[in-house]
Amino acid sequence: MPFKFIKMSWIDERIEAYYQWLKDNTAIKEDVGTGWFSISTPFVGLFNDNIEIFIKKENDKIILSDDSQTIENLVLLGVDINRSPKRIQFVKYVLRNYGIQFVNKELTVISSEKDFPQKKHALISALSEISD
Fold first, then answer.
1. DSSP helix/strand/coil, 7
2. Which residue, 56, 71, 85, 129, could crosslink 105 as a Cys pair with Cβ 3.0–4.6 Å?
3. What is the DSSP letter of 34?
4. Per-residue model confidence as pLDDT tens digits over 20-79
5. What's the whole-model pTM score?
6. Three-state DSSP class for 9?
């Protein structure tokens, strides 16, 4: 049976409602003078707080970072990923799966303007999965 496209069906309305919820529950703040912006997302982190990411544009590249918060939060809970080969392997697997770099406890990814939405989503997904 071929697909039939219907304008603004019930599912389209639910998708639009999700996009609106996402927009309404996302806060952006500029760190004046540094070029960095923080984005507070509606997704819940390790301490039942909002996952926050940091973004800076340099020339034609956009740097996205967790500012080392993910690993530092795990350390606060007594979870040291370096003490267990299985934990290290899991974190490396997640980062590789999402294309995220791990440098000095900081999780980062570089994007262009074109692939920014996908890279932002990948970073948030990786942060959430590692925190779980």
1. coil
2. 71
3. T
4. 999 999 999 999 999 999 999 999 988 888 999 999 999 999 999 999 999 999 999 998
5. 0.87
6. coil
Q: Which amino acid is at 37?
A: F
SS3 10: helix
Q: How far apart are the C-alpha atoms of 65 and 76, rounded to whole Å?
A: 19
Question: CB–CB of 39/52 below 8 Å?
Answer: yes
Q: Cα angle vertex 109, ends 80, 33, to 5°?
A: 100
Cα R_g (the chain), whole angstroms = 17
Strands 106-111 vs 61-65: parallel, antiparallel or unpaired: antiparallel
What tokens does 29 get?
Answer: 């703040």
Token representation of residue 107: 């999780």
Q: Where are the domains of the chain?
A: 10-131
Q: How far is CA 74 from CA 51, 79, 80, 128, in A?
A: 14, 5, 7, 12
Q: How far apart are CA 40 and CA 80, in angstroms?
A: 25
